[in-house]
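ok trying again, last paste got cut off:
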Amino acid sequence: MDPVLERYATKATPRYTSYPTAPHFQNDFPEDQYRSWLSALDTQKPVSLYLHVPFCRQMCWYCGCNMKLASRYGPVEEYAKTLRKEINLTADALPGRMTISHLHWGGGTPTALSPDDLETLMQDVRARWDFAPNAEIAIESDPRTLTAEMADRIGSLGFTRASFGVQEFDMKVQKAINRIQPPAMVRTSVEQLRAGGVTGVNFDLIYGLPYQTVESLVKTVKISAQMRPDRIALFGYAHVPWMAKNQRMIDEASLPDATERAAQAKAAADALLAEGYVAIGLDHFALPDDDLAVAAKDGKLHRNFQGYTTDRAETMIGLGSTSIGRTPSGYFQNISETGAWSRAVTTGHLPIAKGLPFVPDDHLRGDVIERLMCDGYVDAAAIGRTHDAADGWWSDAFLSLEEMQTDGLLALSQGTVQMTPLGRPLVRLAAAAFDAYLQESTARHSVSV
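nice, full thing came through this time. structure:
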């Protein structure tokens, strides 16, 4: 690892899929306030919809998501029934019928649902919302449990994109994370979905896994590229056993150190570029003609809880336990415990647990952080003018970035920040300089690289 990068790589920083970040959401957030946010939405503007299914049929030891193991279908079926009620409760709270520009099913594993339950839920959504003609309709899936019937149903329901957690194809690594899925299994799932009409395919790869090496990860990249997914996300494994108890099954002695993690990240990125993919933001790659690559090239890339996106909607409505959403007025998060979430919905309540109203400074800093995370460059002075901020509002942040400038990681000039090629992996650290909440935060975050 470059000795300069090595000094910064282990510093913990938020991932900035939102600003302010989720640890700052307020507990016991009033349902009435969330209802007022929904009722104030402009029906002429599109919204995004996120539906969360917290069940998986098999446990992965690396996973940091809030999920439940579905050893039988009964609890999943009951969850689907409650989710139907929440769909209608939420639609009732809106000022009128609205249009969806992006819809995303996440989890857990949404394909833990039966094909019939998935279809019923999609029918409920279509009954209460319209879809834009070019709407992206996406679903996450697990190749180990995806059936041919579900793949066909996903296609017939109009899904346009499917995401797979590939992570790593090396068998030793797969055994260490309890996720056995040979390349042939993944290839079959991809082919089934494409045959059903799903045109966009995403892969997630992870570096920093137990027993992982540069060689194994590069081999995984090459095997993945043969299947030609349109987008590949390359994430660093976040070892947070204090939050995710299943990660305690991983032997910490088997985890790569900071130098090895950085070498894996660089080698995988170089291999993806060599396979014809374009680097997007911090950790995404896409084929040159993919919408994400085009948006990045045109400076129209965005970032939300699903990562980098072309979605420009100001509002994302989250449905299901744990789901997070956003309106122009602030963030909200549903109750995470499925029983409590279900009881709230069944009694006619929107199941809100947390929220955070925006203040003007949040919009200013959020815009700066988003552009920096998306473009590796930001004109903080220009963004400040659009928000009527005082001249030089960014000066304190720039002072904290001077060391990174001295180390050749970024360049500061007249209110602008430009990440250098060396500093690109550390863009989260640069973004953190504009985070007004971070200094007083007690939340624990993953390492920067």
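cool. Residues 330 and 377 are 26 Å apart (CA to CA). The mean pLDDT is 94.
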